[in-house]
Amino acid sequence: MESRANRSEERVMEQEVPKAVVLLSGGMDSCVAAAIARQTHRLALVHVSYGQRTERRERQAFEEIADFYGVSERLVARLEHFRQIGGSALTDRSIPVPETGLGAEIPVTYVPFRNAHFLSVAVSWAEVIGARAVFIGAVAEDSSGYPDCRPEYYQAFAELVRQGTRPESGIGIRTPVIGMSKEEIVRKGIELGAPLERTWSCYQFEDEACGVCDSCLLRLRAFAQAGQADPIPYRARSDFSDTDRPVKASGRVAP
Fold this sequence. Notes:
Layout: H1 2-16, E1 19-23, H2 28-37, E2 42-49, H3 55-68, E3 74-78, H4 81-85, H5 114-129, E4 133-136, H6 151-164, E5 172-174, H7 182-191, H8 214-225
Parallel strand pairs: 1-2, 1-4, 2-3, 4-5
Helix pairs in contact: 2-7, 7-8
């Protein structure tokens, strides 16, 4: 009788705590967004494979993070058309991934209008499973300059969701890390006990992170600024000890 009562109490608690769909790429930003969402919501995690170079490794990171949080409600979507569309170094192997440091312009790693496709999948699933929010780990300040990481973009998409879903759905778009720097994201992840060691950010490789693409450089700089060691393996690690910009790349460093 006691176990039956406990199960009944757990069901009541689940009904009281709202559910959220979290877009979890397997990267650091989305992992911390999931950790933040977990404080107020029950999690349902969605991962999108779109023909990117590190597709298998990102999927592995997604599954490991989902296991860490004990989330059984998962969706993996495949958007193969991005590879056919091309136009990005992430989906077209004929376009090299830049290794020249952090620039100010929109880089060739930008996947045109990608996040709208991701959000559409997440919102569709949220409406079906009764989730009240969709969380995405978009970052404005320390992003690579992607136009679909701006706050205005998500404000506009939130209105689109309001107009294009059932009135009773009430699905909100949450961007909990959009105003943070990458350093602040690292610190928040550590504070919340997020499994940053299970995340993957590299644009190029799946065994060891390259350490020289935009995503690796932003991540390495963030950990350095936070005074923490990045726990994933790198083929090379840029030195951010004296400046915000990398000054050299050392050889392979074990985690």
